[in-house]
Amino acid sequence: MDNQNNKKAAEGFATAFAASLAASLTEAVGAPLTLRVLDTPDLSPRHGQPVYYRLTADGGVCGQCFVELHEPQVANLGSKILNKPIATFSSEHADALEKVILSATDGLAGVLSAAHKDLSFKVDWVEDLAFGGMLVVSLAASIGEDSAMPLLLHFDGQFLAGLTSAPTSGDGVTDERFAIAPANLKLVMDVELVMSLRFGQRQLPLREVLELSSGSVIELDRQVDEPVELLLDGKVIARGEAVIVDGNYGLRVTEIPHPIASHLMR
Labelling 139: which of 101, 120, 216, 223 has CA 20 to 30 A away? Predict the structure, then answer.
């Protein structure tokens, strides 16, 4: 159970961190950047030496979290931040990205303030870091048509313990761990979110999945006249009718079960 709680807390922090860092990087590089948490670890080969940025938390949570990138990625991002041609990795690139990460932690602390008061971060980049046994969460960053850049977040035990110890309200009910205050939503208003439409679903045994071929028909659990679901991060935020817009599928919203902002406030 502790491992499950730790993973949930780490993924919640990673989601908030991704939103704040994406907003800061978008402003710094002058181009829309998306940063999302991956459901499964990215095991693709890495090129170049790793570069670690250490986030040291104090106040409402104490401990350390490490952001892992690799030299080509840092050189790419650093060059865009400095508005210079992409060159071989240098400390100038690492310093430029460090400042952007530090600016992102200001917004991050505000986003997490509802659950963890007086939270602040220090950021520095470190080389040749050796550690093990930390919980790891994978992220992927994308700028325009560029291929996604993998990132890793490493959480030490003290930091995880602080994240999982959510405060309780006066009536004994535990507050949502990563509630976003309405005033802080403006920090992430320009962050792009991936949404998907679900026409239906079907559970199939592995045997039938392996037998699928061109021309196979899979019957879904949804009737033709039932509304299509719009999902954000796996949660249904709206329902409606499928339409065609300029040759592309679209959705005409007919129902919003709960205020959409409520999905970001939890």
Answer: 120
**pLDDT (tens digit per residue) in 86-106:** 889 999 999 999 999 999 998
Please check whether residues 249 and 161 belong to one and the same domain.
Answer: no
Tokens of 211: 């037998």
C-alpha distance from residue 131 to each of 9, 64, 68 (Å): 21, 12, 12
- CA–CA dist 8, 61 (Å, integer): 16
**Residue whose C-alpha is closest to residue 192's, from 48, 36, 9, 49:** 36
CB neighbourhood size of 116 (10 A): 20
Same domain, 29 and 96: yes
Average pLDDT, the chain: 82
pTM over cut 0.85: no
Count of domains for the chain: 2
3 state SS of 25: helix
Element (H, E) at 208: helix 206-210
Q: Please, are residues 236 and 258 in contact by the beta-carbon 8 Å criterion?
A: no
* Contact predicate 171/6, CB 8 Å: no
